[in-house]
Structure to design on (224 residues):
């Protein structure tokens, strides 16, 4: 009996000893759809072309479409980068990934790697991504501090991440830019670009990851 108690206490100690990421100090939006708006309207306003140009998406660049949903960015990345490109289409929802797989087959786009992530961990392979695109999904991430922390190992030297979102409160499916900057900075990411995507909706904010991640216990949540 004493041995069992000792083991339980030791295990509990291990759990307590794990540093905890702070909870976001603002609402997290619910996942309600695999797409932001309709693709025809987005294209008529030049969204993907403008975002991909600003992010330097040229052949040879390895890209992850994080929170790919129906794959608005995935298919446009595939068209721009051509066969043989490294493109990850990542999502936390297995059913959405199934729909995207069917779409890629229908549109005869081969070679895209589908990745099922966890709410707090994108689960992308280490050192394989030059550009991560997070389009209209940042405000849905359960814990952005932990997610950004766990995204870092996937990013190759010189990598950047592009976050596309609306300038509105997180509960209304957007992220105010000042809040976004604060949350990214809390995990050591540095902003290197910001642009409106007008006449398309929203903005594109570009960040580079830290050389070394901060200790988890030093990460503090940002006020909305
Ligand atoms: C509004 S859709 C946007 C889809 C696509 N990126 C676009 O621009 O149309 C948001 C997507 O993000 C995904 N998502 C939400 N939280 C996520 C997380 N923690 N990790 C990966 N995907 C996530 C949802 O499942 C959904 O497919």
């Amino acid at each position: 009996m004493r041995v069992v108690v000792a083991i339980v206490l030791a295990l509990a100690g291990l759990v307590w000893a794990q540093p905890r990421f702070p909870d976001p100090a603002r609402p997290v939006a619910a996942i309600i759809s695999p797409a932001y708006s309709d693709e025809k309207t987005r294209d008529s306003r030049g969204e993907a072309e403008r975002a991909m140009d600003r992010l330097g998406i040229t052949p040879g660049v390895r890209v992850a479409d994080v929170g790919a949903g129906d794959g608005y960015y995935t298919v446009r990345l595939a068209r721009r980068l051509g066969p043989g490109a490294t493109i990850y289409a990542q999502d936390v929802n297995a059913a959405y990934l199934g729909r995207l797989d069917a779409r890629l087959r229908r549109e005869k786009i081969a070679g895209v790697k589908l990745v099922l992530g966890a709410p707090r961990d994108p689960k992308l392979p280490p050192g394989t991504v030059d550009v991560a695109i997070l389009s209209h999904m940042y405000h849905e991430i359960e814990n952005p501090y932990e997610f950004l922390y766990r995204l870092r190992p996937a990013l190759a030297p010189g990598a950047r991440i592009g976050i596309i979102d609306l300038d509105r409160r997180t509960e209304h499916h957007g992220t105010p830019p000042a809040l976004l900057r604060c949350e990214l900075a809390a995990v050591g990411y540095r902003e290197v670009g910001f642009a409106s995507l007008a006449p398309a909706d929203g903005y594109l904010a570009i960040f580079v990851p830290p050389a070394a991640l901060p200790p988890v216990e030093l990460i503090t949540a940002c006020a909305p």
Observations:
- Residues 2-17 form the longest helix (16 residues).
- The two ends are 49 Å apart (CA to CA).
